Structure prediction request, 453 residues.
Amino acid sequence: MSKSEKPARIETPQAIRGTQDIFGADAEAFARVVESFERIRRLYRFRRVEMPVFEKTTVFSRSLGETTDVVSKEMYSFEDRGGESLTLRPEFTAGLARAYITNGWQQYAPVKLATHGPLFRYERPQKGRYRQFHQIDAEVIGAAEPTADVELLVMADQLLKELGIADGVTLQLNTLGDGESREAWRAALIEYFREHKASLSEDSQDRLERNPLRILDSKDPRDKPFTVDAPKIDDYLSSEAQDFFAKVTGDLDAAGVAWVRAPALVRGLDYYRHTAFEFVTDRLGAQGTVLGGGRYDGLMESLGGAPTPAVGWAAGIERLAMLVADAGQVKESRLNVAVVSEAAGLDQSACALGFGLRRKGVSVDVIASGGVKKRFAKAVKLNPQLILVLDDRGLSAGAFANLRVKSLTSNQSVATDLADDILQTLEQKFYVDDSFTIEHGRELQLRIDSPAQ
Prediction:
């Protein structure tokens, strides 16, 4: 390259549309959701499970249905080098069902499973919805009793309350009946909608014969006049299905979980049975569901397994995190201690003191670089509860360093608790004066005679 030639400008790659880099307060809200979910799933004795990010495409096409929008339009599928079709997971349930069958987890039935992580769908990005998004997920596999449905619903309700976002969130609940009830209702819906086919939206006309339940939750205004008078599931429920739903609602009432009946809440896939539910809010625009799920007693058979009852729910972490942030539930925790070195020869000791305190669970920032005269000012800007300053001014013969303590907290009990950890750490690192104390609002002197050997 000659001197007159300029090097080619390197184009910085941009993030892929529908993905996000989560940072700062958003990342703290995200972490708050995950941490709360992990704590509560332990309370309810749900086992943690980690799943592959991709599966054979048939796992999702069989379970979600070849004609669903997710399978036909939204899946990220590709051929690997062996020519096999693989798909990035668009949801958790199908992969968990596959794992239950192939890993012999039937021996643990009923088994309670919980997981979280990224999912992938090629859809139009919008508020709280991305092409790579994250969910928390809880499932009970192998339990046919309505108490499993109730446990999951109470667990979800507790999670939302712990996150501080339960106000304004409503649990909508419906029943899809057992297999017999559902088939009778489906036949009645087909007969009813056939009479109005010409007036329905194009999507609903397409769904009429193969998936009429989906017409009931259509958002197209052309369908609304007909869905209002459509046959209701309650007219087709068997006595067993009625008893199942009554047990769910009765136990929810006993547990103090508020709910409303939502007759239009449906699940289009044939393997869904009995309970269907969504926790919804008006704080996320049109896409108001924050957590949803239901019972899917027929799923295992679609993947070649034995008939197995199951129920579960999932929730978008991004959506929950938005509600957490909007509710002011995430506050950055205050720094406990800033350790400042005001002498080049004490930088290593300041770092050692900081490392020792962190091992005791104390949050620490160490300031041992940059201009020495500006280090204390940097520490003050961090607003820690305590500042520890190591310096070498005015030392007597044989002394190693001075330690100044500045308290910036008005809570003296906090300062006292930190003093115990500080003293123990100093005793491990140095020989210290036994009279070491912290008094609020005062700067104290501590002589450290020599480093401990």
Q: What stands out?
A: The mean pLDDT is 87. DSSP finds 15 helices and 17 strands in the chain.
